[in-house]
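Usage example:
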Amino acid sequence: MKAVTRRAALVALGLAMLGAAGGAGAQSPQGEPLKIGFSMALTGGLAANGKAALIAMQIWESDVNAKGGLLGRPVKLVYYDDQSNGASIPGIYTKLLDVDKVDFVVSGYSTAAIVPAMPIVIQRKMVFLGLMGTSVNAHFNYDRYFSMIPLGDGGALQLSKGFVEVAKTIQPEPKRIAVVALDAEFSKAAADGIKQNLKGTGIKVVYDRTYPPSTVDFLPLVRAIQASKPDLVFLASYPVDSAGLIRAIRQTKLSASMVGGVMIGPQIGGFKQQNGSALNNLVTWDIFAPEATMKFPGVDAFLDKYRPIAAKQGVDPLGFYVPPMAYAMMEVLGQAIEAAAKPDQALVAEQLRNGTFQTIAGEIKFAANGEWAEPRSLLVQYRGIDDSGLDQFKQAGKQVILYPEKYKSGDLAVPFQ
Amino acid sequence: MDIELLVNTLVSGLLLGGFYALATVGLTLAFGVLDVVNIAHPAFMVLGAMVAMLCATAAGLDPVLVGVLLLPAFFALGYGFYGVYFRFFEKRGDAAIQGLAFFFAVMFVIEVSMSMALGPEQRQIETPYSWTTWQIGMVEVPLRMLVPFCLGMAVLVALSRWLRSTFIGRTVSAVGQDQQALRFVGVDPVRVKRIAFGIAIAAACLAGSGLLLVQPVDPWSGHTYIGRVFSICILGGLASLRGTWLAALIFGVLENFTSTYVGPAWSLAVAFGLLLLTLLVRPQGLFAR
Amino acid sequence: MKQPLSTPRFSLCCLVAALAVAVVFRMAGSEYLWFSAYVVLQYILLATAWNILGGYAGYVNFGTAGFFGVGVYTSVLLSKLGVGSLPAMILGAAAVAGALGLLMGYLTLRLRGAYFSIATLCLAVLLQTLVTNWDYLGGSRGAYMIRPQPPAMLASPVEYLFVAMLAMSALAVCVARGIERSRIGYAFRAIRDDEVAAESSGVPTFRLKLLGTTVSGALMGMAGAPAAYYSTFVEPASAFGLAYAVNTMAMALIGGLGHWLGPVIGAVVLATVQQVAMVTISSDFNLLLVGLLMMAFLIAAPKGILGLIRPENRP
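Running the assembly step on the lines above writes:
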């Protein structure tokens, strides 16, 4: 008698505890965790964006677990710091797959982090999502690769398409363009791309140079640009040099109809804050702007969660550039896994190939080679910025979207200055 | 030939050179006088920049002013540092290489600590004159480059005078040449070296304030300066302050001219090429005493 | 006292040891181990090569990254010209880097001490600029190098790279020990201790130093040859990275200069720590740890680990 009573009491207690644990609303995911592995640049040159991406992915992890996990199992991210060094990537991915035995893999940040992992994921027949890599699959033609960059099929050409299309609308017609790029993969690809895009437009390249990352003083470069009397100035740069270029441009009062290009830097919160009104009328490639045309469901909630964490870690406090893309990458993978109903690479790949995914970065569908079926490469122009600080960038109207037509929220303001 | 372009390229080259001199002068003392291959010098400069940025933003003061206020702290840092270095390396008579590797490690530790404490993002500071440019005839003089130039000139002149005129200054000059002689006049050479190194690090701190005005700074910004400062130091003839000044100006002008007339891709290579040429032809530097 | 092994006997032992390692790793069959061990072996090769000039002769080469990068891009060049075989790339890299070492030696060996070191740094910068602006090799856009299929006996492309690196590092160790124990090594030590005295006693210092830079350079270039296949994607910034120069020097120092075993020990210790830390601590703290470790070693063991183990064997 006593034993039964005691056992019943224990069972009752157990049930009560379970009830309390699940009382928050959703049921806690049970069982063996579903592990998703990747490398991420947490130190080194790419760390500023790498850390931002990681924060976004961790937010996704907790969001998904709060809603019951994937396939009823809790999700666990397993990641290592690749130190912005491509040579550490093969070791990391083999550890993830062979030793940690992760169920799925995604990439680190940028082409240099994706490519070294490709032979390994191809060999193991893993589904692989690549974060912000340009035209990676053109070299591998892997049918389980899916690219999270809104360039679509055109790859690097897409980076400057907006610039060229908008340039064609300027009156009087621009005839001369200066093209300047940083000696780095992304920027050089963008510069090569625009020269390709300009063929047949009648616009002549009158100045064409690259500069090394160690460049400190941009005045000589900008003066040389000025001396070539361009109507358009296309710049492809990274944050440190973007800042230097903007300063030099303002100082020399460089005049042209349109100035900007694929400048990485202005997308990042800290940069916007530091440069303030110097950004006015600059046009840049972007993947997200808080305009009415881009109010995707969930993005505001995400940014509200992201911002306090990022501020504490000394990382992009605005979160418009990599974070939504990283979060969307995990959403896409998660939705594909759920739709496949089994953590099977072939089934998930099938879902990714054929499905349409609703994410905080908009609706995403992949084309045959793993790139986006519909590019969402924006050309934005900064307008009406003053030096009041970061908050102004959270409103619409400060980053007017000029291209593509589907997301357009305004027209180009000419001249640049 | 566009005269305006030529003149402005020259002027901006000189201004840049002035900043380079400011960045190098500490190394001239450390490497030239003390024979300490302080490869971490640019890292100390970046540390100075970050600390100055934090203090200047918090107190609402000008970064150069903050840099000056921080001088005693950085002097103390250098003074203490050399003590450690001396105890474990110089005194043991080890080859310079252990000391060199030690400073590499120091560089790592400084950079990573900054990254851990402040995050990887680049920082910049706004001053009332950051975006101002004086127009003097056809010449454009951006204040954000003029201030570091003037700072550099001030530091070099002051240091030069100090080394020549004060007793301590003369002992510092002497310690590089003949330590025994110093002992004969009752001066402890180690203490003198510690003072010299303290000044070197303090100079790095001021260079950091200058750096903050010139470009955005992140924890690893120092890397691109390692080659430059050593090159200028050697080009200038190691222990010569005047040599450092002139070599730095040449470096800045050469970089700028190459950038404007050939293309920026080659400007660093040309500057280093000049150094290599100098080493082959006249290793004691262009302006050695 | 036991007679030390003659060079041919030692080489045989090295070969046997290398084979044994290859077999052990093959039995483990873990790609992760092959990838990780490759990095350790690469540093054994680099540190040993560096030590020939730096430890034996006392000429500190800052331009390790220059030679390594040249090796990497020789492979890229050969690949673009249609030659995909790894052995051909290794030979090509050795030849080009060796020639570069010869050239560098000729230009810079009249300089002493820190001047020499800075000159080597200059050369590395010049090389990097050259490669960055050479679009045929990919330039700053980078180059893709898809791994080749391995020869019949080996299980996977990674094992192929691993075995190649194992063979090269064994070769380097044999070469280093051979030099160390020969008259050349004796002359190097004389140069390191007092070059002027050596010169005046008739040692052909210049020619010997040239030999040092050439051999050292060729070996470093060989280390770079498989790196493009290893990473699949190479760009000048990482191929010529500062980390190679710093790590190589640190490893030689931590292990102990002037003796062939030093760089091996140093590379095994430091590289293994780095590899392990990368997949355990894996954050900023990684680099901090390595930096502090280096400082601790330099302070506590100025003659390196070898100096601690056998203090009477002063290199």
